[in-house]
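notes to self, project folder thing:

trying the whole complex as one job this time. last attempt i did each chain seperately and stitching them together was a nightmare. two parts in total, labels are on each line so i dont mix them up again. if this works i'll redo the older ones the same way
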Amino acid sequence: MKIKPFIAAAVIIFALGIAGSIFALTSSSKNLVRISQGGKTLYTIDLSLAKDDKIEIKCSEGTNIIEIKDGKIRVSDADCPDKTCVKSGWLSSSAMPIVCLPHRLIIEFCSESDVDAVTR
Amino acid sequence: MKKAKRISELGVLTALALIMFIVELQIPNPFPIPGIKLGLANIITVYTIYRYKAWEAAAVAAVRITLGSVFAGNVSALIYSAAGSALCILGMIILKRFIGEKHLWLASVFGAVLHNTGQILAACFVLQTPQIFAYYPFLIVSGCLAGGFNGLCAQLVINRLNKIDLNNADQ
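result (full assembly):
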C-alpha cells in the first residue's frame, strides 16, 4: 500500500487547521453578545450600551460569573473543574465563542438578525 | 494459560494508560481552548490497536476513560473523551489495513484528528450549538501535533519490543 496519499492527506488537514485557526483568531468583534446555556438563550446584550456589570449564571452543575467592563465581556469566575472559560479571557473574535463545557454555557457575538426576542 | 497471559497484558496496559493520564493532569494546560491536550494515554491506545484485537483495544480505552474521569473528578468530561475515543478507534481499525506498523505515527495523526472530531460532535450535541465548531481548527492543529508525537512514542515502543521478541526467539 502506498503511503504518500496518506501523508498528503495529513499535510492538507494540518494546513486547513492552521488556516481555520488564523481565521477564527482574526475575526472582528461585534456589539451584540448572546449568552446561552444548553442551547437556550439566557441574555442578549448590546455591549456598546451595556453598563459595567456582573451576572451570575447558575445551573445544576455550578455557577459562572460573567463580567461586563468597558464594553467587553468575559467569564471572571467559575466553579467548573477546568476553568477554561475563565482562561479564555475577554471575548474578542466573532468566530470563537467563550465556552464552559461542564456548565454547557456559551458566550458569543451575534448579529442583529439572530436576535428574535429581546431578553433582559 | 494463553488467555490469562493476554488478559494480564491488557490489565498492565490499562494501568499504564491510567498512570500516563494522571501524570498528564499535573501538567497545566496553557491553551484556553477546551479539548486541547497531549493525550499521552493514547500512546497505549495506538499501541493496543496495532498489537491487539479491535475489541481488546476498545476495552482498554473504555476502562481507562471511565476510571480516568472518576480519578480526575471530572465526570462531565467523560462524554467528550468517550465520543472521541470511539471515533478514533473505529477509524484507526480501518486505517490499520492501509497503513502499516512502519508508518504508525501517520495513522496516529489521523486517529487524533478523528478523536477531536468525535469530541466536537459530542460538544455540539451537549451544548446544542454548532458555534462550538469554531474550536475545530485549533483542535485539528493540536491533534496533528499530539497525534504525531504519541504515534512516534508508540512506534519507538514497538521497535524496542520487536527486538526483545527476537532475543527471546534466539534463546
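what i see at first glance: DSSP finds six helices and no strands in chain B.
need to look closer tmrw
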